[in-house]
């Protein structure tokens, strides 16, 4: 996965601050692994909204990006009250798919705790069948490769 982290088409990553909550701690006294996947999803949606896309637009266009594959690397644990930052950026996109990376860091020591690489496929919401990305999605994703799209 590391080579994929250098292939970004996006000039700057989108970063979502995260504060570890009590209910995210498991019986090992660190953040449960499933929570990292929740944070990945929250960060991806926040980035999509920042690009001007929304669930309402997805519904209007009868299109959605569905997960084809997630590759998750858990590198170190996060603990109660840790201040974290989850970054995401587009690696590439084509007429059917979007590929993005994620990286989670603890702010106190800048240690990378988690990395992920995700492949999403465009599908019709009405029947789940794969289809091309609509122009609205392509336009939003193209803006990430412009130097003026600072986040």
Automatic annotation (TrEMBL):
InterPro entries: 4-hydroxybenzoyl-CoA_TE, HotDog_dom_sf. The keyword ATP-binding does not apply. It holds the Pfam family 4HBT_2. Keywords: Hydrolase. One of its GO terms (molecular function) is fatty acyl-CoA hydrolase activity. The keyword Mitochondrion does not apply. CDD domains: 4HBT (cd00586). This is Acyl-CoA thioesterase.
